[in-house]
Design goal:
The protein is built from 13 helices and five strands. The protein is mostly helical. The protein folds into two domains: 2-195 and 310-339, Rossmann fold, CATH 3.40.50; 214-306, Tyrosyl-Transfer RNA Synthetase (Orthogonal Bundle), CATH 1.10.240. Strands 1-2-3 form a three-stranded parallel β-sheet. Strands 4-5 form a two-stranded parallel sheet. Helix 4 crosses helix 7. It binds adenosine-5'-diphosphate.
Length: 343
């Protein structure tokens, strides 16, 4: 099994990013190590320029995200961790695949329609061809499996269509007429449980870096005292916790706090309510705060140290990129050759 997954570099990382995305990468990496597979993880910095961005922020976020991934347990010795920019084969293969991808296929991408909205004429060409770069990202490494959430399923289907058409049209044939496919068709895998963490101030909106209130989220940079005080100030209600999960219906804030406890402790919501049912938030919040401090303290310590060590971060990305370039080279060469491009 070879899995390939990318994440856009963002700053101000919070508990939602950790529980909803980064932690899954660590789990999949460890799975791959245990089963003899390989994980390729990249920061999608080339994707980031498809929408308006501030250059200095993009480079800072690329390093910040790298620090967060490593602090949270992505191990550059177990997974190949790099940024796209340092592996030019991503951009090269995208161009080669642009000859195979059809306008009609891209026009059907719902994410483009959502992101472009009514401004189709003023969005970048990159936003339109973004799914072709995504196809290159995974086909380059002969990925067998790609973790995808609901919103990315259509893009993986497109990657498979592109791979299939390219193989059909251009795969070299041996003397018996048998085609040797250039690309592996990747299968989707549903990432292991994707927790959705809500704002600490409003159980109806998701925890986000763009929420103006810092009290709405736990940042990976927050120290123990800050975590404790944010949990104590978190919006809740005056009732005791129920003994069964169904009792959380209509209590968005209570559900979110119990959900965070469940995600951090590895216990089910039912188990937690069996312990805390009948108790109020005066008892639950300190327990949740302590759990968070306990689990996040080592991550926080590594993150805070690493994010200011630019040399160490750049060395991590350089080393990962060298491994990725070597892994990508044979497929890129095969694609050039199949197209009749002299190199
Ligand atoms: P934000 O909403 O803070 O801008 P991003 O859109 O940059 O976060 O998300 C980066 C990654 O973190 C994505 O994979 C996203 O699914 C995950 N993520 C972000 N916020 C949450 C959340 N509140 N709960 C679960 N996952 C989240």
């Amino acid at each position: 099994m070879r899995i390939v997954s990318g994440i856009q570099p963002t700053g101000n990382l919070h508990l939602g990013n950790y529980l909803g995305a980064i932690r899954n990468w660590v789990a999949m990496q460890d799975d791959m190590v245990n089963t003899g597979g390989e994980a390729f993880y990249f920061l999608a910095d080339l994707h980031a320029i498809s929408q308006p961005h501030v250059p200095a922020q993009l480079s800072a976020n690329t390093r910040e995200m790298t620090a967060a991934l490593v602090a949270c347990g992505v191990d550059p010795d177990k997974a190949t961790l790099f940024n796209q920019t340092q592996v030019p084969a991503h951009a090269e293969l995208q161009w080669l695949l642009n000859g195979t991808a059809r306008m009609g296929w891209l026009s059907r991408m719902t994410q483009f329609k959502d992101k472009a909205g009514k401004n189709r004429d003023s969005v970048s060409v990159a936003l339109y061809t973004y799914p072709v770069l995504q196809a290159a990202d995974v086909l380059l490494y002969q990925a067998t499996h790609v973790p995808v959430g609901e919103d990315q399923k259509q893009h993986l289907e497109l990657a498979r269509d592109i791979a299939q058409k390219f193989n059909n049209d251009f795969a070299p044939r041996d003397e018996n007429g048998e085609a040797a496919p250039v690309f592996t068709l990747p299968e989707p895998i549903i990432p292991p449980e994707a927790a959705r963490i809500m704002s600490l101030r409003d159980g109806a909106s998701k925890m986000s870096k763009s929420d103006p209130s810092d009290l709405s989220r736990i940042n990976l940079t927050d120290d123990a005292d800050t975590i404790m005080s944010k949990i104590k100030k978190a919006k809740s209600d005056a009732d005791a916790l129920p003994s069964e999960p169904a009792g959380l219906d209509g209590r968005a804030e209570a559900r979110n706090l119990v959900g965070i406890y469940a995600a951090m402790s590895g216990q089910s919501v039912a188990q937690i309510l069996a312990d805390f049912g009948g108790k109020g938030f005066g008892a639950f919040k300190p327990a949740l705060g302590e759990l968070l401090v306990d689990k996040l303290a080592p991550i926080n310590a590594r993150f805070v140290a690493l994010r200011q060590d630019r040399d160490a971060l750049d060395a991590i990305l350089r080393k990962g990129a060298a491994k990725a370039r070597a892994a990508a080279a044979p497929t890129l060469a095969a694609a050039y050759d199949a197209l009749g491009l002299v190199r």
